[in-house]
Amino acid sequence: MIYVVIQFGCIIYLIINARFDLVESFSALLIILSLIVGLMAVVNMRLDNLNIVPTLKDKHQLVTHGIYHFIRHPMYTSVLLLCSALTLTNAHSLSQLVMLILFVDLILKSNVEEKLLTERFSAYQNYRSKTGRFLPFM
What is the CATH number of the domain that holds 105? Predict the structure, then answer.
């Protein structure tokens, strides 16, 4: 649960302190890409499989199609893209620190999820070896 609190605290801080009047082309591109990745993840995952807390539902199914064919945690990718765009609008060192905290938090949170998925699904280890955590092919 602490991962979720830290994640949303960082996101809220970055949104509140973003300088939307300073959004330039690259930041706008990151925001658009974030929306596309996030929407694709939700469509591929389906809402009944979605969970913000790093636990698995009783009827949780391993999703490996669509965007999940390339990225194991596309929702986190979406969050990182959006928050990177917000951080670029505010070069304040505290915003950069919050972005770093968010990145570390999402790595730790995804580690917990990956442990649970490995325990539940025998195919997960093979899937994991073929996909990137937050970026394709990495």
Answer: 1.20.120.1630
